[in-house]
């Protein structure tokens, strides 16, 4: 492709709404253009990258035994109502009506659509398992689209769905797809971890997120540097506190003592006033559980893991108290609650609380706290769970070594769904006895457009993008610098450089090397800056001085390694394999 013919120009300045590197660079380099908030057009260079990512995904899905299909983007809301997800997705879903008033949505995902299709095929146990996938556009009406492709309202996704007779069969396909995901991300040169995760609106018990570490990531994940443990922050656990031998009777602890804490509500304020550490306090967080008041009790230096709390009390509905709840129940004193509050019907405590022998807590009175509160003597616990959000330094639940917490970008998610959708949509198979049974399902998603952003976040420098060879829109960026010519001798030399550049372009293209040829009449500085910004893996530069010495300069974009390739008859007429090795790998 000649740059004089390429649609899309580079920009010297990043757009004002771009606040992460991948967004800035993809726009500046002419890969994408914003159409509306969270909605982007893919220009020719970007389309080539997107197609390469999709091809990697497609090849691995095919190899894993999945069969490609295409599902409609427009889906009837009736399907979503049957699973209840029309409500759980709420305002995230783009909704519309046809001229008859029938409700539809733009697909945010496709569990309902694919399950209804499979349900209509009247399958028996002999037909299973089956694994279907598509690479298609998805739509979610994000409240605050940001970070370019990472939090967009329209995005390209690969979603696959497998159907089985039982959980054991599902586990086999789940592992096959898990391994395929690892190969996909390896080919995209991404540094990633598969972490245990919460299922969210999709559902399912066993699931893993694939996360790439990135400071701009929107999710925290916890991982151990010594063993393989890794988990999303909501699902992360830490090694349980050993409580054996702790005297919970309170026999050796002084009686409770009420102390004044005027106008002090926060943990830090109370700790400073009493000259203690925040970890010496108990934080009591009020929550509603199907109309009953509960307290989540954790050390004062920790935060409540709402997902763990909800899971512990499932299927009952749990939500933390809001300001409106406190206003409606004035006896529940925000900032002054203690675990002995008489109105609490449920006390859920973190395992670390059991290790304390004497705590400072709210005294259930305004401007009052109390010392010397202990488990067993002064309050009882309904249920012990791992309730606190994991922090860096907490012991790994598997090996006990310190955990680390990093920010990450979610690029894939795999789920063992069970029968949630098959039961709701009557997706049954006929077993050996002729009895209908609900199919056991798996679900596997990859954000194809998200991969592009994640790759740029990991592979860039101060000058631009450094594409891995597997995703680069072109293998080689050919820069020809014929120089300014005034005299007949200079014109002849310039023409010779240009002609040789054209010949290099021709023979590389013929040999199957994809080339972006900068044939523009602009300065060398502009050409070099654009080459760095666009980020092809290899840059070949043919200038007047190099031509005089019979060499073309080869630069590896990622490493900056430079070498010279001789422009000989052998190179210009080399066999396809020899030429590709010389240009792409730098070895003649």
Question: What report would you give on this structure?
Answer:
This protein has 588 residues and is an alpha+beta fold. The protein has three domains: 21-237 and 405-457, 2-Layer Sandwich (BirA Bifunctional Protein, domain 2), CATH 3.30.930.10; 257-385, YbaK/aminoacyl-tRNA synthetase-associated domain (YbaK protein), CATH 3.90.960.10; 476-585, Rossmann fold (3-Layer(aba) Sandwich). It has 16 helices and 31 strands. A hairpin with a 5-residue loop joins strand 22 and strand 23 (436-438). Helix 1 (21-28) packs across helix 11 (448-458). The longest helix is centred in the C-terminal third of the chain and has 23 residues, at 488-510. Residues 243-247 have low confidence and may be disordered.
Supply the key terms.
588 residues, alpha+beta, BirA Bifunctional Protein, domain 2, YbaK protein, Rossmann fold, 3 domains, nine-stranded mixed beta sheet, 16 helices, 31 strands, 27% helix, globular
Topology:
Blueprint: H1 21-28, E1 32-36, E2 39-42, H2 44-63, E3 67-68, E4 74-76, H3 77-83, H4 85-88, E5 95-97, E6 103-106, H5 111-119, E7 130-139, E8 154-164, H6 167-187, E9 192-196, E10 207-213, E11 219-224, E12 230-232, E13 257-260, H7 267-274, E14 282-289, E15 292-299, H8 306-313, E16 318-320, H9 323-328, E17 346-350, E18 359-362, E19 368-373, E20 383-385, E21 403-418, H10 420-424, E22 428-430, E23 436-438, E24 440-447, H11 448-458, E25 460-461, E26 464-465, E27 476-481, H12 488-510, E28 515-518, H13 524-534, E29 538-543, H14 544-549, E30 551-556, E31 562-566, H15 569-572, H16 576-585
Parallel strand pairs: 3-7, 15-17, 17-20, 27-28, 27-29
Antiparallel strand pairs: 1-2, 4-6, 5-6, 7-8, 8-24, 9-10, 10-21, 11-12, 11-21, 13-19, 14-15, 14-16, 18-19, 21-24, 22-23, 25-26, 29-30, 30-31
